[in-house]
Specification:
With 296 residues, this protein is of the alpha/beta class. The chain is built from nine helices and eight strands. It is globular, with a radius of gyration of 20 Å.
């Protein structure tokens, strides 16, 4: 009994530390706090197309593509060069089966149309972007029925060794963020844009586009009440804008003909390098909780 009390005390202290870092140091303040005021421009928001992975010290998000920024969004219905989409995934023209997406010299595997089969596909398919026989594969975890789906960009090198997404110091901070919302990893559905870590910790264009298509299909199958996007890469991938521009408001993600609410916050890796930004992250989590509460 004494051991349980000590563990509970340690958990509560950790959560209180997160609130303190986020600027919540009193239940009532004499003056209003500007929770949604943007910080200096040192925050992420101008990275590559899908952003550099926010891991292992990659906190400088100011690097841009050769032409000064990410490529412009495609017109609605546009298809990447060299690819022919015969029908939306899950709406194939023959017997309700999805048609494969065709790339010259390669036929990509169609997406399974049931969540359990899709999860098994993520665990076993050799056709996933960046898949290699010896590459660590970090699959989704948690409860798909929890109503909250959270995306990180990709496994870090530490995650690949640990066998879990968001491990080490970023993972401990992430757990404190969840605890501040009254949740744990068992009451969310956590996944990455990619189950694999690309070479150099960067998405290339073709692999990144395939990861985005997989992520949208995954969202449609999980059907969460809300999606939380951690960091610049996830925001750019699924919303087309950086984290600074996206945070502080509720966005819509279209996935297989369905629409889902999405909120962006700063990644735990970034928050470890910029502790003052935790107040902004807490404001984002409050917005998320309000959005979920309105649907209960």
């Amino acid at each position: 009994m004494e051991g349980y009390a000590n563990d509970l005390a340690a958990e509560l202290a950790s959560t209180l530390d997160w609130w303190s870092d986020a600027g919540v140091d009193a239940l009532v303040q004499d003056e209003a706090r500007a929770w949604l005021v943007e910080p200096p421009s040192t925050l992420p928001g101008t990275g590559r197309w899908l952003g550099e992975a926010e891991t292992e010290g990659s906190h400088d998000q100011a690097e841009s593509t050769a032409d000064g920024g990410p490529p412009p969004p495609r017109p609605a219905g546009a298809v990447p060069h060299g690819r022919v989409d015969h029908a939306p995934h899950g709406q194939g023209s023959s017997g309700g089966r999805p048609d494969p997406t065709i790339v010259p010299g390669r036929i990509e595997e169609p997406f399974p149309t049931q969540l359990d089969l899709f999860q098994e596909w993520l665990r076993t398919s050799a056709t996933l972007p960046y898949a290699a026989p010896a590459a660590p594969r970090i699959c989704p975890s948690g409860d798909p029925a929890s109503g909250l789906m959270i995306f990180a960009a990709m496994p870090s090198s530490e995650d690949c060794s640990a066998g879990t997404l968001l491990s080490g110091a970023p993972g401990r901070l992430f757990d404190r963020m969840l605890a501040a919302m009254g949740r744990g990893r068992e009451t969310i559905y956590l996944t990455g844009l990619s189950c694999f870590r690309p070479a150099g910790g960067r998405f290339d264009r073709s692999g990144g586009e395939r990861c985005v298509a997989i992520a949208r299909h995954h969202i449609a199958l999980a059907a969460p009440k809300a999606v939380l996007l951690l960091g610049d890469a996830c925001s750019k991938a699924l919303l087309g804008i950086g984290a600074v521009q996206a945070r502080g408001k509720v966005h819509k993600i279209e996935a297989d003909g369905q629409v889902f609410d999405a909120i962006v916050t700063l990644s735990p890796e970034y928050l470890l390098s910029q502790p003052a930004a935790k107040a902004m992250a807490w404001a984002d989590l409050q917005l998320l909780m309000e959005n979920l509460a309105a649907k209960d």
